[in-house]
Amino acid sequence: MGFAVTDRWSIKNTPSMNAEQFQLWQALLEERTGMTLAPERKPFLETSLNIRMRELGLEDYDTYYQQLVVGATEARAMEWSILVDRLTVQETSFFRHPGSFALVEDYVSQFARERAAGTSLNVWSVGCSTGEEAYSLAMLIHERFAESDKQLFYGITGTDISLPTLSKARRGLFGRRRVEQVDPLLREAYFQPTDAHTLQVNAVLRERVCFAHLNVLNLDQAPMDDMDLIFCQNMLIYFRRWRKRQIVTRLADRLAPGGLLVLGPGEVTDWHHPELERVSFPDTLAFRRRV
Ligand SMILES: C[S@@+](CC[C@H](N)C(=O)[O-])C[C@H]1O[C@@H](n2cnc3c(N)ncnc32)[C@H](O)[C@@H]1O
């Protein structure tokens, strides 16, 4: 038995998982989400499962595992979606990786210069978490398009496996401290306070951004096509090498000619696609589809 802090008020015994049980849970998580759970994250898994098991009145890992793999399909799916939210890492922030946003800024300016009036820029934020990434892209594009003398349109879709994060993203409500990371001019232009601690992204951006549930292991079910910009960061890091490459190839297939795929630096290595070329831009990992 190990000890773990299971909630703010009490310290409870967390039963330790044996090696066989850990392997089963690792395999289930990887099969359904792509995420690999390193051995050092076993205490995290034990604590997260125990919190949920207590909520359900269950006492052992095996019974809970059985609930997730056999039984009524709808109940299983609902329970799985709750658990996935607890086990995935949702850390994010506005304009999280400055180099990548600088590249997107260049790309959007070029798009605004070269494309005809009335054209729409289609953007996809893959593994969008609570929406900061999608709204950052919206602010950047909105600013660049406002400077253009042509009327240009844009639409951003954020997708994620976690339903609770998607509903947070849709509300567009963020704590004051989170929003402090945003440049003051953008903050002033695109956020409004809803109370002393919270700000909301303005409707002008929210109208351009939508959020949808999508597991990247099921990319074949995604209706996105002809995307001008696909932004995918800090999700593939939890996946095995072969899976990262497979997903990146599937994302590349959804790019429009001239479209840009932005990953996190170092997130895939030794990956090539016959129709894409690597973009040379400081501190970024990005590829562009040949026209
Ligand atoms: C660390 S966050 C990254 C958020 C944002 N892209 C950023 O860089 O700040 C990773 C996100 O990937 C999502 N995720 C993990 N596995 C996924 C999967 N199989 N399909 C879709 N989203 C997944 C998680 O729910 C989480 O919101």
Number of strands: 12
The major sheet is characterized as: 7 strands, mixed
Helix content: 40-55%
Low-confidence stretches: 1-11
The gross shape turns out to be globular
The SSE order reads: EEHHHHHEHEHEHHEEHEEHEEE
Total helical segments: 11
Which class do the helix and strand fractions yield?
alpha/beta
Distance between the termini: 60 Å
What is the CATH superfamily of the largest domain? Vaccinia Virus protein VP39
Small molecules in complex = S-adenosylmethionine
Relative strand content = 15-25%
Q: What is the gyration radius calculated from CA atoms?
A: 21 Å
CATH fold call of the largest domain: Rossmann fold
Describe the structure.
The protein has helices spanning 19-33, 42-56, 61-69, 73-87, 98-114, 132-147, 163-171, 176-179, 184-190, 203-206, 241-252; strands spanning 2-5, 11-14, 120-126, 153-160, 173-175, 191-193, 198-201, 209-213, 227-232, 255-263, 276-278, 285-289. It folds into two domains: 2-87, Chemotaxis Receptor Methyltransferase Cher, domain 1 (Orthogonal Bundle); 98-289, Rossmann fold (3-Layer(aba) Sandwich), CATH 3.40.50. Helices cover 42% and strands 21% of the residues. It is globular, with a radius of gyration of 21 Å. Strand 6 (191-193) and strand 7 (198-201) form a beta hairpin. The strands form three sheets. It has a seven-stranded mixed β-sheet with strand order 8-4-3-9-10-12-11. The protein has a three-stranded antiparallel β-sheet with strand order 5-7-6. Strands 1-2 form a two-stranded antiparallel ribbon. Helix 5 packs parallel to helix 6. The longest helix is centred in the middle third of the chain and has 17 residues, at 98-114. Mean pLDDT is 94; it is low at 1-11. With 291 residues, the protein is α/β, with parallel strands linked by helices. The relative contact order is 0.12. The protein has eleven helices and twelve strands. The structure holds S-adenosylmethionine (SAM). The site of S-adenosylmethionine (SAM) has 23 residues, from loops.
